Hints:
The complex is a heterodimer of chains A (326) and B (354).
Chain A: E1 2-5, H1 6-20, E2 24-28, H2 44-48, E3 53-55, H3 60-72, E4 76-80, H4 84-87, H5 91-98, H6 101-104, E5 114-119, H7 134-138, E6 144-146, H8 151-163, E7 168-173, E8 180-183, E9 197-200, E10 205-209, H9 213-226, E11 231-235, E12 238-240, H10 244-254, E13 257-260, H11 269-281, E14 290-292, H12 303-309, H13 313-324
Parallel strand pairs in A: 2-3, 2-4, 4-5, 5-7, 6-7, 10-11, 10-13, 13-14
Antiparallel strand pairs in A: 1-8, 6-12, 9-11
Chain B: E1 9-12, E2 15-18, E3 21-22, H1 23-48, H2 63-70, E4 78-81, H3 86-91, H4 96-103, E5 127-130, H5 136-151, E6 157-162, H6 169-180, E7 185-191, E8 194-195, E9 198-199, E10 219-223, H7 227-242, E11 248-253, H8 273-282, H9 285-295, H10 301-324, H11 330-335
Parallel strand pairs in B: 4-5, 4-6, 6-7, 7-11, 10-11
Antiparallel strand pairs in B: 1-2, 2-3, 8-9
Helix pairs in contact in B: 1-2, 1-9, 1-10, 2-7, 4-10, 5-6
Bound molecules: thiamine diphosphate (TPP) and magnesium ion.
Amino acid sequence: MAQLTYRDALNQALVEEMERDESVFMLGEEVAEYDGAYKVSKGLLERFGDKRIKDTPISELGFAGLGVGAAMVGLRPIVEFMTFNFSILALDQVINSASKMLSMSGGQINIPLVLRGPSGAALQLGAQHSQACETWYLHAPGVKVVTPSTPADAKGLLKSAIRDNDPVAFMEGELLYNVKGEVPDDDDFIIPLGVADLKREGGDVSIITHGSMAHVALQAAKQLEKEGIEADVLDLRSLRPLDVDAILATVAKTNRAIYLEEGWPYLGVGAQIVSIIMEEAFDDLDAPVLRVTQADIPMPYNKKLEIWAKPGASRVVEACKRVLYV
Amino acid sequence: MAETETVAVGVVDGGPALGGFSKEKLVEFLRQMLLYRRFEEKAEEGYAIGKIGGFCHLHIGQEGAAAGCILPLRQDDYVISSYRSHTQALAKGLSPNAIMAELYGKASGTSGGVGGSMHMFGPDTGFMGGHGIVGGQAGLALGMAWAIHYRGGGQVCVCFLGDAAVNQGGFHESMNMAAIWGLPVIFVVENNAYGMGTKFTRMSETEMVQKAASHGVPATVVNAEDVLATYAHFDGLIELVRQGGGPQFVDVECYRFKGHSMSDPVSGTYRSKEEVEEWTENSDPIKYLRDRMFSADLLTGEELDAIDQEVRGIVDAAVEFAEVAPEPEVETLYKNVYSEINPHGRLFFDGRGQ
Ligand SMILES: Cc1ncc(C[n+]2csc(CCOP(=O)(O)OP(=O)(O)O)c2C)c(N)n1
Ligand SMILES: [Mg+2]
């Protein structure tokens, strides 16, 4: 095991998969000569040359189309979005082309494509640069969505995403790139898509979450612990495929759950999870499942208001207490 | 360096002049550009001490563009821009106090502290915003130009874009529609040669002016180091567009002296320190005008100092204003998501008691 940052873990995954399979290449804004806006692709240009690490113009719709088209004829493109906010320009090719190609073609043409980059809010970047984009991608059948929260998850899941034969939106956390953690050295270390990870064990209440919010959930669990409340923290890691069994298991254990996510509430990820729990675990519940989300507003620039609008640990603690009736 | 010496000494209204501009006008150009420079320097300072956060993109080195393109406009003309827009907001008449307060995230800011550096707005002055998605403002400019045409008004819409934005599809769609419908819009590329760390020439086989050719939009080039040439050029174009001449495209050459944003290095793998020093030394629009005014005996050292003192005073006052301005309240956040709260039905779903 090595101590790696989330950034370096992603970098390793890219290197290993590009070594392993010549049809894997990556393109995006500033990925080559600048080493990536967040330095995830550091050293790749030198190592793989400018055919496999390609700087693009600021043409998100165009280069996402390139990714889908190249995947149609057998390459395995990785498209980096400088942030997922800008991928909204490319959504047409994701929703109208990538997600439907296999179905429209009667099963003849699959799209082994990874769309990756940071998603969600960083610090004071304002409304257009602070969006959790999971829901845009999750809504369309045909796209898979992965949201790693730790360096090991980042590496193991990115390798799986690259090897997967379908379009995968791989959403990283902008504030996670410097987070350190243990990462297995093994070239073949992968984490299969669709397997959640219980990041903390506790029997009183379940905090179910994904992506960078796993860290907020763990903070909240620590605070709850001081008050004698033990929380399960279930990090879904992959939202489609979704580890429904793991969700049902934690709910069966604690009988009380909240969903924590970075995005907006309306039709958010939590809405789907709550619906699944209602349908499949109604009898296990001792309280309604609550959701903690970003405030239902565009993200404000002002520092205090931004902190207020984000789903912080204290809101999670409060929601846990509400489902515990304490 | 501006390649051609467009500035000729002469006489205007019986007084001494440069390039056809009276001393009064020249002083105003100098004063404006110095205001922009001092304002951006204060923003830089505010960022360094953590009073300003997020992304903050400065115009230091590019002042000739805002002055030359915007000062010839009327108050009721529209300007729309990218996330790099402090000086354009100043040029269009937003108050330095409100702009600084916005950077400080205060309620008295141009967007009530909710927008920040990238999202300044001043509809009363025709400044229609800083926009954060590269190229996004092109479509909005098209719409504003359409509205002018629709209402039959004689206004003009100026759309600022970075050089990298011309590679967005939406920009070309907008140019095409502006052309076929003859709309009163000027697409202005503030061509500082780089989009973040990528040189324009790496991402385009054609020269900037050719971007307009396939749409049948007339294109011209002007160097913003020379504010007088830039102003004269835009003064003419704006009139042409106002008279119904249809859209225009202008490649405004300039150079960014600082990093892409406050969190990016000034130089690095994409451009050398020497390159930046060379431009900073030899292509500063403020020095350019100052030196020409000096040599035409239209400016003394004392006059320059007085102007500088005056604009420094304005900027210091803006900082003081921003410092003491109140923080925005949470309630305003919900007030400004929908302009109309319908009598029936729920609009917000976060359960935060709104
Ligand atoms: C659609 C989109 N893609 C990427 C970005 C990230 N980004 C912000 S500024 C920028 C470079 C733009 O350069 P240019 O258009 O030349 O303007 P300049 O910053 O030089 O004024 C990039 C890639 C963005 N904001 N929007
Ligand atoms: Mg540029």
